[in-house]
Structure formats: structure tokens, C-alpha cells
Amino acid sequence: MLIFFFISGILTTTYNSVSASSQLVENSWNTKTPSPNPERQGLGVVAVEGKIYAIGGFYWTEKPYISPMYVDKHLDINECYDPATDTWVTLEPIPTLMTNFAITAYQGKIYCIGSISNMESCAFEVYDPNTNSWSTKANPPFYYPHPYSDNQYSPFSLYSRNLQAHVVDDKIFVRNFDELFTYDTINDSWIKKTQVPDDFKLSNDIFSAVVDNKVIFFQVVNSAWPGDRPNNVHVTIYNTKTDKWSEGKTQELGVNGKIMDIGATTGVYAPKNVYLFGFKTELQYITWVYNPINNAWSTAKAVPDMGVYGVTELDDVLYITGGNNYGWHVGGEDVFSLNMQYVPVGYDRILSSDPSVSASEDASSSGSSESKPLWASLTVPITAIIVLTVSVTIVISLFFYTKSRKNH
What we know:
mainly beta, five-stranded antiparallel sheet
């Protein structure tokens, strides 16, 4: 019996230490080690096999809007962040400079499509993390910036976010302004799809995310500047199965409201939602949450700091990576780097059998401080420890029981 209690004590201690160290609190932000290359913005961020890659981007040599001598410095940086060790490593640089480009991952490789503001052609580079090497594909059947842009050579076109890429059912869907294509990775070929309907053709930034077999686009429509009219985000949805477009619910962002980037959860460890990180004003940050099933909006905990960053998802946890170098964040410093982890609403909880549960409903039904039953918090390693410990305890108990019977 003493052995049993001794092993039980070890099990309890082991479980408590493991669960405490691995537990993530839903609807919360965690600060991680920033990139060794600060002030980077306009970069591409994507997750592959448990690691996060931050590629390309630029920074200002002088403060824009303030100094007439500012220019943009484009970067060929390729970095990898390992969330398990909270460390960064520098990898082979991208061959073609890109800013605010389309980036996605498929079968362990990273696909980068885009250019910089003073290039007419649109480059196509593929990175293989296993070999730390790049391969160049033929240019896509479009170029970026868009030919209809009046200021395609202006440095302000660096802020344009109108080139997006996502993988759905082994195909890479790429939207370039009003054009939509699919890329066949096997045949290295492009197919033009049904274009964006006229009613959905809007200017300004486009952000996108995939939920199930649909690509959801969020387009910011700016109010007059200066003015007191609120900015809005319009939702357009492309169904990859039917090759048809539909419209979602519009959300008011507030006067001068802006989206910096977005990320989506998959429904495995957190309910399916799209998180839009941005601000109502430059001093009031906010996170909007779009529920694609209910076509409804809610809010979540705002990002603690503001920069120009990229967002990616890894095991239903969202990571934002980037920076700034013209004092646009809480501290007001001229140069800073941002690397933060956001744990979505409802993360690591038993999801409702009704998949339409929204972020706000999920948060109200059980807050982040809700205690979970023991069995709901068990991970595979902890379960293995329990099974092994119980098995050993039973064997030892039977051994001493049999020995004591023989002695009598």
C-alpha cells in the first residue's frame, strides 16, 4: 500500500506540473521572443510542420508622412520561429524581393507570389524547408501591382494587400484584385476561375481566410478623410466547390478603423471563427470575430500592441509577427519587433455539438477562468503516464498479495 501511495503521489505531481506548463488560457495574448530583425513590415507569415516562417517585407529609412526623404528598404530575409523552443533561426534568403505578397503552404513547401512596388511582373518562388532551398516557377498570368492602379509605382502601394493565396482540396487559389485563379502544383499550370462579381468589386485592402471549402474575403471600405463616417468591412465568400460568389454581413469598424491582418481557426481545438486584428482609432485596438456559420460578428480581446504584421495559424493558435519603425505602437519607440501568440476563444475545450456556436456565445457560456474536469484536460502524454502508472501499481500489488498468501 505504501508503494501505491508513493506512485500515486508521483502521478499527481507529474500531472500537475505538465498540465500547468502546457495549459493555454483562451482569449488571451502571450508575448514571445521577437525576430532578430526588427521593424519589418509587409512580410509573409506561414506555418509549416509546427514551425512559423517569416519571409520578405520592408522597412522605412525615414519616417513616412514626416520626412520627405523616406524610401522603402526591401528585405530578402527568411526566418523560422519554433514555438516549442521560442527561438529564431535565419534561413536561405528569398531570391525575389517581395512585399505584401501572397503566401501559403502545401505539402510541406511554401509558395510565395508577388513583387515589390517598382516591378511590373509578378514573381513565383517556392521554398522547401527540408532542403533550405528555393525554386523559381514561371511567372503567373497576371502581374502585381494591378494594371488599373494609378499609383502602382508609388511607395504607398506597399500597403496594398490585394494579392491572396490559400490551399483548398489540393489546389492553390490566388486572388489578384478582381481576378481569381487556381494553380496546379503537379502540372505547373494556371486556370482562371469565375471573377469577382461587379457588386463585390471594392477598392482598398483585401484580407482572406479559408473555412472548410470556402475562401472568405474581407475588404475595408474607407470613409472620406478627414471625416466622421465609419469605415466598414465587407464580406465576400467564394465557394470552391460551386465556383460561385456570395455576400456576408458587413461590419462597422469605426471612424478611421483599420484591419492589420486576419487569421482563422479550424474547429479542431477552437470553434471555427475568423479573427480580424486592428483598431478603431490609433489608440483603441480591437479584435473583431466573424462566425462564418452564423454569419455573425462579435469581439475578442484586443492585441496589446500595434504594428504592421502577418498572421498565421498553428494548431488553432494564432501568431502575429512583424514590426514597425515609425513609432506607431503603444510605447512610441521608433523601432520595434512584434511576435505574439493569441489563444482563441473556446480553445482546448469540448466544442458544442452545434458547430454554429459563435465566439461571443462560447465566451459567455464559460469564461477563460472556468475550471475543466480532469478528464477533459488530459493530453496524450499524461494519459500514457496514468495508464503506465496504474498498470505498474496493479502488477506490484498482485506480486505482494500473492507473496503474502504463500507465506500464510
